[in-house]
Amino acid sequence: MIRVVVADDHAAIRAGLVMILGDADGVEVVGEAADGAEAVRLAKRLEPDVVLMDIRMPGVDGIEATRQLSGVCEVLVLTTFDLDEYVRGALRAGAAGFLLKSVESSALVDAVRQVAAGDGVLAPSVTRRVMREFASSVPRSRPAGLDTLTEREVEVLHCLGEGLSNHQIGRKLHIGETTVKTHVSRVLTKLDLRSRVQAAILAQEAGLLDGLGDDQVSGGPARP
Length: 224
Prior knowledge:
The protein has about 220 residues and is α/β, with parallel strands linked by helices. It folds into 2 domains: about 1-115, Rossmann fold, CATH 3.40.50.2300; about 130-215, Rossmann fold (3-Layer(aba) Sandwich), CATH 3.40.50.2300. The protein has 10 helices and 6 strands, in the order βαβαβαβαβαβααααα. The radius of gyration is 17 Å and the shape is globular. The two termini are about 25 Å apart. This is LuxR family two component transcriptional regulator. GO terms for molecular function: DNA binding.
């Protein structure tokens, strides 16, 4: 059972999200929060698998709450706005995914399942520009810590940059998903990253994916 906390300051929207998730097989909403501070308190007490997090909330906003929950649980940001500052802020804070509230109910449930399984999710409308913006935001250089990765971990990092899920990485490298998760965890630790989405961005920034076509950095929902 996937345990979820829903954080949104609008009661009607929160109720709708709870209804959607509550009707999904294998998903249980264990808590509701009206602001970021409450979301952090609930997540630390209830230990959910995923927090579905709004960004614009009073007091502690969703980005700061996401930052505080790094290492506690996965955070899937769900917002009305796909403004670049929100996308950047959420991903740099360690969000495992970013979706718009216009997402179909089935896609939302699928995204929650993906994030709970350790995969990342980005809304199709923002995937390409986000990856390109992050890739061009700093000079291409060899990131600190890259030399500490094993050959297999470099392969996994490359796969993350391609947007592959754990299942897809396993098939490509001919290893089990449990082994993939172990390698991903080690990559994040060695590179001091908060999420696989950040790892995908780092792979772009380092130029590891030079030569990939647009169809390999877009689509949807993407799974960094």
